[in-house]
Amino acid sequence: MERLPRGRHGLPRQFVIQNQRERLLAALAECLYKRGYESTTVAAIGKCAAVSKSDFYKHFESKEDCFLAAYEDSVARVRREVLAACDRRQRWESRVLGALEALLDLFAAEPALARLLLVEGLRAGRGVYDRYQDALQSFVPYLRDGAPTPADGAPPPPETDEAVVGGVAALLARRALADELEQLPNFLPQIGEFVLTPYLGAAEARRIISDR
Questions:
Q1: pLDDT band for position 148 (cuts 50, 70, 90)
Q2: Which of 87, 100, 143, 180 has the smallest CB count inside 10 Å?
Q3: Distances (CA, A) of 107 to 151, 166, 194, 210
Q4: Given this model, what pLDDT does residue 10 score?
Q5: How many alpha carbons fall within 13 Å on the CB side of residue 122?
Q6: What SS3 state is found at 199?
């Protein structure tokens, strides 16, 4: 986030407050990326955001409170990016691959965001872990919506959708831990096949990926 000019600037107070908050959230993600959750302090967040400690506490009660706000904002942003990439006029498999491509591109471009969601969120305590599970569950209906019915007429059980979404998160977290986030766009064929196979079969999933 861009810092505000020093001294008198004539900007509306509400704008200043919102700008400070957004800078603090962005600074938290950056500190987590460089230091990890345990080593990130309120002082470090404030310094990175160029916001005083007293102003930090006008926005958040604690580091944990700031983290939860950043986490919720990040989940909402990922959801917007993914859904924006899903053209309802396309076939289900094209929508799924478009959503995956948008997700991989976002995480590759913003590794601090990716680590906040995929890694640090699991280290920040039970409350955040529950939010992590809720976030994963929130994507399940989008995956199921429009999924094709197999030739035998028996769709995969609902647990399949949960397993696929959770599996994608686990695969991406592994890449984040290995500092391979910049390479994520190259991972689209493998992760795309992983997602499509339970619904289309391995051969058809490979064909769609190769024809894309």
A1: confident
A2: 87
A3: 35, 17, 19, 23
A4: 56
A5: 12
A6: helix
Residue with tokens 């407050």: 17
Alpha-carbon separation of residue 168 from 6, 28, 100, 128, 212 (angstroms): 44, 25, 9, 19, 20
Q: What's the CATH number of domain 64-211, 1.10.10.60, 3.40.50.150, 1.10.357.10, 1.10.3720.10? A: 1.10.357.10
DSSP 150: P
CB contact at 8 A, 45 and 69: no
Per the prediction, the chain carries an average pLDDT of 88
Of 81, 185, 67, residue with least CA distance to 116: 67
Q: What is the CATH number of domain 13-60?
A: 1.10.10.60
Helix-helix angle 92-109:158-177, to 10 degrees: 20
What confidence score (pLDDT) does residue 15 get? 67
C-alpha neighbours within 13 Å on the C-beta side of residue 98: 15
**CA dihedral for 84, 73, 20, 177, sign (positive or negative):** negative
DSSP type of residue 5: P
Q: What are phi and psi of 167, to 5 degrees?
A: -65, -40
